[in-house]
From TrEMBL:
NCBIfam families: 5aminolev_synth (TIGR01821). Keywords: Acyltransferase, Heme biosynthesis, Pyridoxal phosphate, Transferase. It comes from Gymnodinialimonas phycosphaerae. InterPro entries: 4pyrrol_synth_NH2levulA_synth, Aminotrans_II_pyridoxalP_BS, Aminotransferase_I/II_large, AON_synthase_class-II, PyrdxlP-dep_Trfase, PyrdxlP-dep_Trfase_major, PyrdxlP-dep_Trfase_small. Its cofactor is pyridoxal 5'-phosphate. This is 5-aminolevulinate synthase. The keyword Cell cycle does not apply. It is an enzyme of class 2 (transferase). Its EC number is 2.3.1.37.
Length: 404
């Protein structure tokens, strides 16, 4: 058996489709974000990041960094194993209390990532609850899809952001079904926001559990960063709220919040919680500082809104097509994988602008795009420079079209 040959055949197929993933090699430098050092071939030494999920620059926040460094100095590096064996670090409990408070819930449970929190929670709910049926929005994140798959329970896919379709599908379930409705608030590829209140109306009508992923909203929406559900006053109607500490909070880790019984249930049965080493105490302390900071501070959220609106307005003024949505995510549609990758390469090499192409299978074929996430640390000059670069490339692309 020539295994390398087998691997290579599939890699070659990816390359042929234009869907082979190439990662930039970057080095973040404290205090310079969104400017980073680039180690990628052919790019300038310094580039500006336009697609980070460190949406508010909290990964460079002095308070958050100090919390991490102080805790390493006080407690060392690792957690020493699973919580099952090594016990709860005091810092884990403090962070869980902070997160439960953020979402107005009884309790919270930490995981090593948002991916693991979705995977472990949905697979545990789906496999343990009698007659469980998970009703999943058609555009749910891979971590939810994998969790549902692993649950091996019945599943139903409902039309993206369509409460009427959900209503019909819930109505069609057998009377003894235990329905769990899984969806996101902000969908990160299109940047659209779920009609949460309408979805909850439907859940309540059918007695279904509601499970929301607020990964792309926590820290950024709501007066204390509790997400879109906080902004809309809906948190108390949701059974389980899931989030990440790795994006707007600038650290790493994932979590769920809910009732005492729900959290104790997942803690007691979820393999993905029990059998893996807990987050380092220093990470928990940094995340706590970040969550606390964003409960109080409005500056980051306000500046992010301002810069998002500014980039949208400038793109409109220059006729560069982008999706109009109600979030902080600005997808510029290219609709061709090869061209999308090429635009991204030119932006990086000739303009020092880093934006990763978003291709299949992250998004459906034919909807390839560049996805911009302006933040509080992008200056007005950064925005002007980006728009100038896109304008130049759009002109060149149009010429390429005409010749072809
Ligand atoms: C990134 C992401 C996750 C996973 O969170 P991590 O903390 O990065 O593992 C979960 N859900 C959605 C919608 C995401 O985009």
């Amino acid at each position: 058996m020539n295994f390398d040959q087998m691997f290579q055949t599939q890699l070659d197929a990816l390359k042929e489709e234009g869907n082979y993933r190439v990662f930039a090699e970057l080095e973040r430098a404290c205090g310079d974000f969104p400017r980073v050092k680039s180690h990628s071939n052919g790019s300038p030494d310094e580039v500006t990041v336009w697609c980070s999920n460190d949406y508010l620059g909290m990964g460079n926040n002095p308070t958050v960094m100090k919390a991490m460094m102080d805790t390493v100095a006080a407690c060392g590096t690792g957690a020493g194993g699973t919580r099952n064996i090594s016990g709860n670090a005091h810092h884990h409990k403090l962070l869980e209390a902070e997160l439960a408070d953020l979402h107005g819930k009884d309790a919270a449970l930490l995981f090593t990532s948002g991916y693991v929190s979705n995977w472990a929670s949905l697979s545990t709910l789906g496999s343990r609850l009698p007659n469980a049926v998970i009703l999943s929005d058609s555009l749910n994140h891979a971590s939810m899809i994998e969790g549902i798959r692993h649950a091996k329970c019945a599943k139903v896919i409902w039309k993206h952001n369509d409460p009427d379709d959900l209503d019909r599908k819930l109505a069609a379930l057998p009377a003894n079904a235990t329905p769990i409705v899984a969806f996101e608030s902000v969908y990160s590829m299109d940047g659209d926001i779920a009609p949460i209140a309408e979805i909850l109306d439907v859940c309540e009508k059918h007695g279904a559990m509601s499970y929301i992923d607020e990964v792309h909203a926590v820290g950024m929406y709501g007066p204390r960063g509790g997400g879109v559900a906080e902004r809309e006053g809906l948190m108390d109607r949701i059974t389980l709220i899931e989030g990440t500490l790795g994006k707007a909070y600038g650290c790493v880790g994932g979590y769920i919040t809910g009732s005492h019984a729900l959290i104790d249930f997942i803690r007691s049965f979820a393999s993905g919680f029990i059998f893996t080493t807990a987050l380092p105490p220093a990470v928990a302390a940094a995340a706590t500082a970040s969550v606390k900071h964003l409960k109080e501070s409005q500056w980051e959220r306000a500046m992010q809104k301002r810069q998002v609106a500014r980039l949208r307005a400038r793109l409109d003024a220059e006729g560069i097509p982008h999706e109009h949505n109600a979030s902080h995510i600005i997808p510029v549609m290219v609709k061709d994988p090869v061209k999308c990758k090429m635009l991204s390469d030119i932006l990086m090499d000739q303009f020092g602008i880093y934006v990763q192409p978003i291709n299949y299978p992250t998004v459906p074929k034919g909807t390839e795009r560049l996805r911009f996430t302006p933040g509080p640390l992008h200056s007005d000059e950064d925005i002007e420079y980006l728009v100038m670069a896109l304008k130049t490339l759009w002109k060149q692309c149009a010429i390429a079209h005409a010749v072809a």
